[in-house]
Every structure is written in C-alpha cells, then in structure tokens.
Amino acid sequence: MNHESCGTLACVPDADHLWRSVRHDASNLAWHDDEKRWIPAGTALQFDPDWSGRWREHLIDIHGLGPSDVAEAHRPLVFEVQVEAIRMLGMKVEHTPQATDPTDCAHASTWYRTDGAQPTRPERALLRNALAVLLTLVHGAIAMPPPPGA
Ligand SMILES: [Zn+2]
Fold this sequence. Notes:
Blueprint: E1 17-22, E2 29-32, E3 37-40, E4 51-55, H1 56-63, E5 77-82, H2 83-87, E6 92-95, E7 107-111, H3 121-134, E8 136-139
Antiparallel strand pairs: 1-4, 1-5, 2-3, 4-7, 5-8, 6-7
This protein binds zinc ion.
C-alpha cells in the first residue's frame, strides 16, 4: 500500500522519530553504565557518508507498520531516537526515500553536520557516541548479561 507522499521528499519534523535496526552481538552493543542498559556501540553506527534510519511516523501513520517491520534477520534489534535530539547535536536529518514502497519510502539520512562538512576523526567518534546514547530499544530483546561489575 503506497501513499502519494511515498517516494517524495518531505520535511521530517523535530518531534518525529527514526527507527534503526542493529545487530545483536557484543561488538555492536555497549553497556551504558549510568543508565544501566545496552545501547548501540558508537563504533557500530556507520556513516557512509550518512547514517540510515527509517522515519517512524511515516511508517505508523501512512502504512500502519511498527518497529518489527524495520527489523531484519541479521539486525533483529530496533532502536528509536527523536529527530530533535539528533539535530541538537548539530547533525542534519533528512527524508531520503529510496523507493516508493515501505520501508524504503521512509528512509531517512543523518549527516554529521548541517553544512555537510566532514568533522575530524575524534569529532566523528564523539558524535557517534552522543548519538548512541540517544537511542532506546523499542523492538527485540538483548540476551546478554550486563558486564561483570556493572
Ligand atoms: Zn511510505
């Protein structure tokens, strides 16, 4: 089921959210000691040159889909982040549909900087780590115990 806005660029409001599927293994998850929960590892958030997500509100409101529809066999966990929180890091979020069918019609891209500039390697690591902390698990279960001493 398509909608006339599918495949057409739309502005993603600050109040909306992105979903992102993540691999379930020790190299893609990191323990957040303050919040006592697993988050995606900053090093696992690949920017190439953008970081891909799916626009939650487009999928729910237009297609009646949920986070499980974004999960993949090799990426069974789905995390959510609010668009405004990403933008407050100075990053850019845009709707970048890659097809007219869900979920590609809800593809969204995050860039390190609004002006397209490429930050230095340490800056990129800081931004990825800041983004990782903003992500909350909304689908799938993490079957790893907290690290010893956590
Ligand atoms: Zn759509």
